[in-house]
Design goal:
It is built from 14 helices and 12 strands. The protein is an alpha/beta fold. The strands form 2 sheets. Strands 2-1-3-4-5-11 form a 6-stranded parallel β-sheet, sandwiched between helices. The longest helix is centred in the last third of the chain and has 17 residues. It comes from Fervidibacillus albus.
Length: 346
């Protein structure tokens, strides 16, 4: 026979209504009582009927996740799997599930979001990106629908709760690290120019060069997708210049892995011929050859904080708009070396 709320209430010596409130994580119930009731639920093997509870609360217990492009492409980059791990951690206690967009174009993604909202398929949405002039954020704002952005919004940031790093300062610090090693010919490999993370990191790169009185060269700035192939294509273009860069700031570790493979294929050496500072500090950054100097943006924490503030907004529609900045740190490894002037052989 299936275990019921009444069985849990009897063993925990509380009213059935108290068990229901514990399941809903009601603030009216003390943490001591919640702990006791949850322990009894585990001992008895009781699993709440979340579907019935959702119907009663007129809630879907579902969070929508929106990628900047199709999920199959996004999952090639470990940033998304790591941020989703953080989101899942935040959702577990609240018994929410995820619904993800599958659109392959901006139009299909927008259509997915409209269906989520108008079809009442989700209680709130997390955007895993921030894009220039994004119709998705405009739609969500106009419909007063709970959502959180991972990244700095392009417009109306004061109206949107968002979780981000200070990408401008992080890129400035990464570029300064290369400048302090004596490099002056520093290139930048970024992602899609419509993504705010790319623009913010490009801004920091440029600011560091301006502060150092080094001219900004358009030929040294390349934009590709945040993929292995993106790094490969970008560095091929840079290294065929008449005066190629001696160092790179690369906006993503997966792109940097592509850079490393291509440089090795050219018979060149990192960091002897090219120094690299990367972003994200993915697991393979430390396993690369050589290990990558990378700016750790604490991706897991981005996901945890995003879902925390989204649920707060779902549960209280008067929850104030917040800007949450997650700290970063430069993890120095052996992909960077001091600039050495190369002698010209006759």
């Amino acid at each position: 026979m299936a275990v019921t709320i009444k069985d849990v209430a009897r063993v925990a010596n509380v009213a059935p209504s108290t068990v229901s409130r514990v399941i809903a994580d009601s603030p009216r119930i003390s943490e001591k009582t919640k702990k006791r009731v949850r322990q009894v639920m585990v001992e008895l093997g009781y699993h709440p009927n979340l579907i019935a509870r959702s119907l009663a609360n007129q809630s879907t217990q579902t969070i929508g996740i929106v990628f900047p492009n199709s999920g199959d492409l996004a999952f090639q980059n470990p940033f998304f799997s790591e941020v989703l791990r953080g989101i899942s951690e935040g959702l577990r206690e609240k018994h929410y599930v995820l619904q993800m967009t599958t659109g392959k174009s901006d139009e299909e993604i927008f259509d997915d979001v409209v269906k989520m909202v108008q079809g009442k398929r989700v209680d709130g949405i997390i955007l895993l990106y921030s894009k220039v002039s994004d119709p998705v954020t405009d739609f969500l704002l106009e419909n007063d629908f709970p959502f959180v952005v991972i990244g700095k919004p392009d417009e109306r940031a004061e109206q949107i709760t968002h979780v981000d790093n200070d990408n401008v300062t992080a890129a400035l610090d990464g570029t300064n690290h290369l400048l302090h090693l004596g490099h002056k010919r520093i290139g930048f490999i970024g992602g899609n120019k419509q993504l705010m993370v790319t623009l913010n990191r490009l801004e920091g790169y440029k600011k560091a060069l301006i502060d150092a009185n080094i001219p900004i060269l358009d030929d040294y700035i390349i934009h590709e997708e945040f993929l292995l192939e993106g790094g490969q294509e970008a560095v091929k273009e840079l290294m065929t210049l008449q005066s190629p860069p001696t160092a790179l700031l690369v906006a993503d570790d997966l792109m940097s892995l592509g850079v490393l493979r291509t440089i090795h294929g050219m018979g060149l050496n990192v960091p002897k011929d090219l120094s690299i500072v990367s972003f994200n500090n993915a697991l393979f950054a430390q396993l690369a050859s050589p290990p990558l100097t990378s700016i750790d943006i604490h991706i897991l924490e981005l996901g945890i904080e995003a879902v925390k503030h989204l649920i707060a907004r779902i549960e209280n529609r008067k929850e104030p708009v917040k800007r949450i900045i997650i700290p970063y740190e430069i993890i120095v490894r052996s992909s960077c070396g001091p600039y050495v002037e190369k002698s010209i052989e006759s």
